[in-house]
């Protein structure tokens, strides 16, 4: 009985967090965007629907933070899938903040070093700036860069968990371990399933 009440308390707290993220007057996280995947196909916010999506913003020239967070992302992908009977219940997405240097070829090689299932997205400077604005991501990439010119990029360091309807659920930060992050994600997925809502488990396009 005690375990049941502890579970219900945690579930209700998760529901409260989700509802607060949709609250009136609060800045919305997520929204319409248009980018390209690594095959040159258009990828919009509609492509995030159907599964839970795990979205990270970064860049391939990042010296340490992005590699550390992508190592964590890879562990989370494997943990969530292993505890979901091998089903692909979550879509991992990496959106570059540095479109001038992060071509599809560069992104593909970089992301494959961490996990083959991470979907890489890029676009024009304005498209990337717009999606960063939609997700409240700090964006400092300079515009009109000359070929070979070196520069620094600063960006927010969060994973954004989006539900199968495309709504923001929760942020996962640097303080979260792969284990704690996986539990947060799996708890939300479990709540979704118990509510009888549809969840697509077919493989995502890469």
TrEMBL record:
<dbReference type="GO" id="GO:0005507">
    <property type="term" value="F:copper ion binding"/>
</dbReference>
<feature type="binding site">
    <location>
        <position position="66"/>
    </location>
    <ligand>
        <name>Cu cation</name>
    </ligand>
</feature>
<dbReference type="GO" id="GO:0045454">
    <property type="term" value="P:cell redox homeostasis"/>
</dbReference>
<feature type="disulfide bond" description="Redox-active">
    <location>
        <begin position="62"/>
        <end position="66"/>
    </location>
</feature>
<dbReference type="InterPro" id="IPR003782">
    <property type="entry name" value="SCO1/SenC"/>
</dbReference>
<comment type="similarity">
    <text>Belongs to the SCO1/2 family.</text>
</comment>
<keyword id="KW-0186">Copper</keyword>
<protein>
    <recommendedName>
        <fullName>Thioredoxin domain-containing protein</fullName>
    </recommendedName>
</protein>
<feature type="binding site">
    <location>
        <position position="62"/>
    </location>
    <ligand>
        <name>Cu cation</name>
    </ligand>
</feature>
<keyword id="KW-1015">Disulfide bond</keyword>
<dbReference type="GO" id="GO:0033617">
    <property type="term" value="P:mitochondrial respiratory chain complex IV assembly"/>
</dbReference>
<dbReference type="InterPro" id="IPR036249">
    <property type="entry name" value="Thioredoxin-like_sf"/>
</dbReference>
<feature type="binding site">
    <location>
        <position position="155"/>
    </location>
    <ligand>
        <name>Cu cation</name>
    </ligand>
</feature>
<dbReference type="Pfam" id="PF02630">
    <property type="entry name" value="SCO1-SenC"/>
</dbReference>
<dbReference type="GO" id="GO:0005739">
    <property type="term" value="C:mitochondrion"/>
</dbReference>
<keyword id="KW-0479">Metal-binding</keyword>
């Amino acid at each position: 009985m005690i375990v049941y009440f502890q579970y219900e308390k945690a579930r209700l707290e998760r529901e409260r967090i989700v509802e607060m993220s949709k609250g009136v007057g609060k800045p919305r996280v997520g929204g319409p965007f248009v980018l390209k995947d690594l095959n040159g196909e258009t990828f919009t916010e509609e492509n995030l629907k159907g599964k839970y999506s795990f979205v990270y913003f970064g860049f391939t020239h990042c010296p340490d933070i992005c590699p550390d967070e992508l190592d964590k992302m890879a562990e989370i992908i494997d943990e969530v899938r292993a505890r979901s009977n091998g089903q692909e219940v979550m879509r991992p997405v990496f959106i570059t903040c540095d479109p001038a240097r992060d071509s599809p070829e560069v992104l593909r090689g970089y992301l494959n070093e961490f996990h083959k299932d991470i979907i890489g997205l890029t676009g024009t400077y304005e498209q990337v700036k717009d999606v960063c604005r939609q997700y409240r991501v700090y964006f400092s990439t300079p515009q009109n860069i000359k070929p070979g010119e070196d520069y620094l990029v600063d960006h927010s360091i969060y994973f954004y968990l989006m539900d199968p309807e495309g709504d923001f659920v929760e942020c996962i930060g640097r303080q979260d371990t792969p284990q704690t992050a996986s539990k947060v994600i799996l708890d939300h997925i479990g709540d979704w399933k118990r509510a009888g809502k549809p969840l697509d488990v077919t493989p995502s396009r890469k």
